[in-house]
Amino acid sequence: LRGGKEDSRGALVVLEGLDRCGKTTQSTRLVKHLESLGYSTELWRYPDRSTSVGQMISSYLSNKSQLDDHTIHLLFSANRWEKRSLMESKLKSGTTLVVDRYSYSGVAFSSAKGLDIEWCKAPEIGLLAPDVVVYLDIPPEKAAERGGYGGERYEQLEFQKKVGQRYQDLCSANWKIIDACSTMEDVEKQLQEIALDCVKTCQEGKPLSCLWS
Ligand code: DGP
Ligand code: NA
Ligand code: NA
Asked: Residues whose CB is under 5 A from ligand 2 (ion)?
């Protein structure tokens, strides 16, 4: 497999966006594409609902349990921390990780509730920094039209509007924005280009770094 060489690492590619922006479909397709080119690649997603922390999060999202806003924020963060060492070893062994949501979701969703943004960012310090963040940009109204929301806690138009504003505040130089209202094929192609570019830069020796950088 390409990218499996001892001296080259995998890339950390993060997809972000509002609920129903198409991240899940696109991240799945991207992984297949990178694999077809011979790159060792895995699809990850947060929250990872399979762990015990993830099960608490899942229960909260489906409104089966209630938690204080700060408490759930820290659980989402803990869910990323519990996978951090595995993430580092995968990347160092040459596997590229395509990750559906990461710390930016953590900060955007919790600060949209009114929590202080610096407080929200603090528990993410020291997690691995993505090599690229791809934001699938969709107007909240358009996202809401896409077959309706699934009924989880945050899937409400007014709240998603606030989340969109928070993402705008977080957006920095290493973010790539894709218009998620383009055709599925267009989005797919743009994403492939961005990811491939990033994978190559990492292979050439770009060092791993930590949040918030
Ligand atoms: P998903 O499984 O991608 O549909 O995500 C579930 C929901 O949880 C979605 O509305 C986004 C939200 N979410 C994802 N990560 C975080 C996080 O770290 N903190 C908070 N508060 N919400 C998050
Ligand atoms: Na969702
Ligand atoms: Na998703």
From this structure: 19
